[in-house]
Structures are given as structure tokens and as C-alpha cells.
Amino acid sequence: MYEYRAPRRDIRFVLHEVLEVEKVLAAGGREDVNRELIDSILDEGARFAENVLSPLNWQGDWHGGPRLENGRVSTPPGFREAYRQFCTDGWAGMAADPAIGGQGLPDVAYIAVGEMLCASAMAWRMCSGLSEGAVLALSRHGSAELQARFLGRMVTGEWTGTMCLTEPHSGTDLGIMRTKAEPQADGSFRITGTKIYISWGEHDMADNIVHLVLAKLPDAPSGTRGISLFLVPKLLDGRPNGVSCASLEHKLGIHGSPTCVMNFEGAQGWLVGQPNGGLACMFTMMNHARLGVGLQGLGLSERALQASIAFAYERLQGRAPRGALERDKMADPIIVHPDVRRMILTQKAMTEGQRLLCFYAYLLIDVEQHAPDEGTRKRAAELVALLVPIVKSFLTDWAVENTALAVQVHGGAGYVRDTGVEQYYRDAKIACIYEGTNGIQALDLLGRKVLGTAGQSVKTMIDEIAALLKSDLPADFAPWAQRLQGLLAQWAELTKTVAERSAKDPEELAAAATDYLNFCGYVLVAWCWLRMARVAKRALEAGSGERAFYEGKLVAARFYFERVLPRADAHAAGARAGAAGIPMLQREQLEA
Amino acid sequence: MRRIMVCVKRVVDYNVRIRVKPDGTGVVLDGVKMSVNPFDEIALEEALRIKERGEADEVVAVSIGPDDAQQQLRTALAMGADRAILVKTTDVVEPLAAAQVFLTLVQKEQPQLVILGKQAIDDDAAQTGQMLAALWDRPQATFASKVELAGAAALVTREVDAGLETIEVDLPAVVTTDLRLNEPRYVKLPDIMKAKKKPLDVVELASTGVSAGETLKSVLVEPPKPRSKGVMVKDVAGLVDALKKKGLL
Ligand SMILES: Cc1cc2nc3c(=O)[nH]c(=O)nc-3n(C[C@H](O)[C@H](O)[C@H](O)COP(=O)(O)OP(=O)(O)OC[C@H]3O[C@@H](n4cnc5c(N)ncnc54)[C@H](O)[C@@H]3O)c2cc1C
After folding, report:
1. Are B229 and A328 within 8 A, CB to CB?
2. Kind and range of the H or E element at A428?
């Protein structure tokens, strides 16, 4: 069983050396969040994640997860205590506005801690992560009265929040949901219906649970324009409010997180935002929620990478192809095998490259909110919108791949339970599914973000990347720069082709979407590696005493360009292939 | 004002795998994570608990070291110290010089208690507290595993070779902490944010009138030799032979 070690060095590398967040934040009026403060926060966040949370991860899994008895859900041993400490130590409100009792951390500092929380105990972290989302929605759209009544205790973590969207027949297609809301004389509503798959819908870590529920008003128009958002507490003034957990799901991973069937039986609730404006409210927190799921993927990839490295230097098996390296041992450590190094470097290249991509996206949220001039804010908003579906989908699909590679590096020891690596693999898959499946992310990217802006946001991103290529790069990076230059041209051309076809036939858009998203992902991570390699190279030339750290970066950058980036071409081909090749099929055409 | 002074040293984090510089002049510090010396964290925790019991009014954290040591003092402030003083120097500060510097601070601050870690995990000297007590001419209670204040005295339980011993020392006094004295608290996020606003004075070493620098010369720093491979012996006689050959029997 591996304990988690927060990758503080790499996080500092990304934040300080590559993104130079201190400067960016200062430009937005957050001079108070300097490097020293960020490092202190990283240190304490790491201490909590490593010492308190990490041991809970496998306990929550082995214990079999939460139990439902008489309508009450009890969480695995240790979960409650850790949650209490999380609240008393002030982490629960880390991102929230100081005006409502939060700590007001900039997003980019908040997610550095967020990554550690996801990596150390993803199932446990979902609870507070969902609450943060609920706080955000409520603080933007809730009435002053609702805010006064609920927000304070949600920010401190005394009460947690949920998101209740999914119903048995209504998952991706929210427009067909049935839960109804009947207006009452006092201005409140009675909510009736069944929601399923509700994470942390019921549990014993907090005194009360504030559900944010999507439902339909009696006169609501059909489809997604007829959905409203309601706040429905589990307890009202300490008394039950017609909200109950009917059962818990048994599932592939994240066993520590209760996935609840929730029944609302005339539960009292209040409207949040406008009538029939529920989805609009959801949209304001969507960027955070989706990046947050990408972050879960990143956390698991990191944890899996750590395990792979540790195992590869310990496990003795076989001899190096060029002859034994450790003659006095019965065999060499498996790191001597190029194929094992291929697996570990793939993990390293993707995990660290994606870390920069993800942190960059969060930093842009800070810029979007705080930059002094409007042009900069607008540009950041445009890029955030573009990057969100990519980060969500690309990082979670790769978390499945990375954790699978970790299992493979471990051989049989990875498949059986003892090392804990198989848990990472099982935990990873859900992130591809919830908060909008990855297929839906691809449609959002290509439909709304790319074609919806007539390609403008892609152009902005391409310009940003081209700026790096025009800057003074070390001479030996020329092949990488050329390669990236070529991909940018391909990106522009691909966007144009798909746009033209989609204008004639919506099926074309849908048929190209996932390959298009993945193509973008590989190009963006190539850009990230070029940025990191440049910093690493300069540090080495300046005689840094951390040679190994920076040399490792250069090896990973090269590996990425030589052995991972070619996948971009495969996805470009897929995106270009068109809808004709994946026609609507008769079932008999598929079945043997 | 009943004041406690806590001495805090910036050292390589205890989790870091130490690497020796190839030229043997010391250990690699570039980019290495630095932290508060763990024993000093315990010292600070004890001071904070005494204050929280209402038996002290102020906790002052002090350090001697480079400008970067402000980071460790900020951690101390985040844990709960009221203010901090850094005596700035990039010179090597050996235990005697450290004790002399602390003495100047003691004379200025007039604490009823000075708490230090029993040793710092970088040089493991375990001398500064004792030297400070001698220079100050006040009682010392080293290797404490329990500290109780009783009026003008402190009852301190010490970890000694034979077990535990409890002594009473008149205040003001110097206490050095052992590992089992307490478990330092987790720092709260709001306190990290607040720590930035607490006073942290920086004074130059020269202003204390103490001169630092190496009076001891370190000749060579070497990593421990890797353990050589074990030898299999056939039987007991073989074992006895082998031990004899090594001069162990
Ligand atoms: C462990 C767990 C926790 C969850 N937590 C929550 C929660 O807290 N709150 C909550 O409300 N929900 C939650 N969910 C539900 C989750 O968000 C949904 O499962 C998800 O949105 C997909 O919906 P679905 O399961 O109905 O799949 P479906 O919508 O039936 O999708 C099936 C497949 O069809 C594809 N598909 C569907 N529609 C389209 C389309 N228009 N275009 C292209 N492809 C399409 C999907 O991508 C998917 O591959 C959770 C689910 C799980 C398993």
C-alpha cells in the first residue's frame, strides 16, 4: 500500500517557475498572495492530505463504503473525523468569498490544494468539492434571504451541499426530467420526485445537507428551458423535510462515496435564480465543477505515477538488455527494461503536462475575474470556456489510461489488491462519466465553444501558442517548435473543415467531436511541455543544483514529442474522416 | 507581561532524502524543501499550550538564519506565535554563537521561559539550550517530556537514560523539548492568511554584537558507505571463523 506524497516540488515548478502566478495575481490586485504565502498553503495542505487523508483512501475502499441503515448513512471509519478537522482547520471555505466567511484563495492556489485532496482520498473529497459548488451557485443566484439562512454554515462546512440532477430516465438528457415543484402560498415550493446517483446525498459527516435540486414548475415549458433550481434542505429547523435516501448503489470505484437514490416527498424548498432558469444557474458553476473533475483525474494520475516509480526501482526481475546492471542481486530492477520505462514516461509526460494545462486553466479564471483591463478579462474568459471541456475530458480519459499503466507496471501485484493500485484504476473511470460524460464535453467543445464562436476561441488559443514559438527558444528545441507549428496549422485547417461540414449536416459535428477534442488535448499538452522544457533548460544552464529534477523534465518533454504526440495525428485523421464512416446502423449490422 | 520565547531553526525537511555534494563540502541544499526543525515545532506547540492555559501572555518566535528563514517564522506565526524576530545572517552559526545571540534577545525581551528544541536535525549538536542557560545564568531543564508551570517555578519531567525524572526549576528558565512532549497542531488556513499581518522584525546579526563564523572546521562530508553484500556461511563453525577473522570474537 503506497502512501501519497504531495508533489510539492512539481506544483511549485508549475506555479512559480512556469506560470509565474505571483506576477499574474499581483496584476489582478492580489499582491497579498505572494510566493511565500502560496508555499505555506501548499505545505499545510500537503500535511493534511498526506497524514490525514491518504490513509483513509484504501480504508474507504476496503471497508466496502458507506452503509445505509434505517435511512441513515454511516461513512467509513475515519471519514467523519477527517472531515471535522478539514472544517476546523478552515479548508472548507478556502475558495469562498471572504464576504461570506470564506478564505478567498485565488483559484490557482485553491486547486493546488484541491489536487492533493483528490489524489489522497478522492471519494472523501467529493463531499467537500460538491459543497463548494453549491456555495458558488447559491452565492451567485440565491436570494439574500436564502443566503443569510444557509450560506454561512455551508462555507464553514457544518452543512454540506449536493447537486441533484439525474433521474432514472433522465441523465444526459435533463430536459425530460420529471421531478416537480408546486408553489405554496408562502412563496416556497413542495418538491416531489426521485433523483438517482446523488453523491453524498445522505451521510453522517455534517449536521444538515443542503440539496440543490433541478425540478419542473407546473407550467414549465418542455425541455431544458423548463427546468428550475431549488434549495431543499434535509432538515428544516432540525426537523425532517421529506427528503430520504432510499438506497445506495454498489459500484466499480469510489466506494467511500455514498451514491444515493434520493426521494423527495413534498419536501419544502425555495427557488434559486429565475423560474425556468435552472440550467443557467448550473452554467455559472459548470466551469469550476468540470475543471474540478479534471483535477480528480490529475490527482489519480499523479498517485498512480508515484506508485509506478516506487515499484519499478524495487521489483527485481530479468536483466537489462545490454547486460546485468546489478550483478550482486538475483535480478535487475524492472526500471532497466525499456518497456517499463515507456510506461512510466508515458505517465510522467501526461501527468505533468496535464498539470500545467489544468493549472493554467484555473489561473485564467483568476485573470478572468480580476485582471484590471477588460480586454484581458475577455480573452481569459474565452480561453477558459475553450479549455474547460478539454481539461475535463482529456485529463479523465488519461487518468484511466495512466492508472491502467500503473497496474501494468506492477504486473500481478497491480491486479491484486495489496498494493492499492487497482483502486486508482477503478476510482478513475467515474470521472469520465459524471459532470457531463466525456462525449458531451466533446460536443460542448466543438459545438458551443469552437463553432459557436465561429472559431474565434481556437484562434485566440493558437495565437497564444504561436507567441511561445516566436519567442527565443533554445536552438535544439527547433524540431519540437516546428512540429508544434505544423500542428497549429493543422488545427486551424481541421477546424475550418469540420465547421464547413457541420454547417451542412449536424451529424458531422457530432461525428468529429471526440477526436477533435483529443487532438486539441495533445496539441495543448505539447505546448505545455515546450514551456516546461524551456524553463528546465534555462535552470540547467544557470547551474541549478537540482539537476535531476530538470533533466527529468527534458527527458519527459522529448518522450512526449517522440512517442505521445503522434497520437494527435491519429485523432486528426479521425476527426477528418467524416460522418459517412460511422453511419446509423441496423442492429443486425453490428451483431454477429 | 509573562512572555515565552521560542527558538526556531530553519532546517532541511525531515522527509528529504539528504544528498551529499560531490565535492564533499556539505549536503545539497538547492531546491531542497526546508522546514521548521521538528523539535522546535514541539517547543512552539508547548509555548502555545501554556499561553492557551492562561499561564503566559505572549509567545515570541525567534530565529537566526538567512532571509528565507522568514518562511519558517511565518509558519510559527501561523501556528499561533504573536510576533517573530529574525536575526539575519548567511554565516554559519554554531551553538555558542546561537546561544550568544539568543542571550541578547533574552535580555531585551525578558521572557519567563525560553523553550528550544533539544537539538536541530541538521547538525544534531544539542548544545544551544544548555549554553544559553549558562550564559544567562538561569536554570535549565533539558529533554522535557512534560512541562507544568507552578507560580515562580516550572515542574519539568525529563527523559533520561534511566527513565523519567521530574525536576523543579525557578523561572525564568530554559527548557529544551524531547519528541514526546506533545504533538504539534495542524495549522489552520485562516491562520496562515492572518500570519502575514503579524509583526516579524528582521535585525542584522551585526547589530547584536555577536560574531558568527566557523570556529570548527569541517574537513569532509561523506555519505555513509553502502552496506556490502552479506556472506553466507555453511555452519556454526564457519560463522565463528568468520567472526574471528573480523576480530569480533
Ligand atoms: C458514482 C456516480 C456519482 C454521480 N453523482 C451524481 C450527482 O451527485 N448528482 C447528479 O445529479 N448525478 C450524478 N451522477 C449521474 C451522472 O452525472 C450521470 O450518470 C451522467 O450524467 C450520465 O447520465 P446517464 O447515466 O443517464 O447516461 P446516459 O445519458 O444514458 O448516457 C449513456 C451514453 O450515451 C451517451 N449520450 C447520451 N446522450 C448523448 C448525446 N446527446 N450525444 C452524444 N452522446 C450521448 C453518453 O455520453 C453515454 O456514453 C452520478 C453518477 C455516478 C455513476
Report:
1. yes
2. helix A421-429
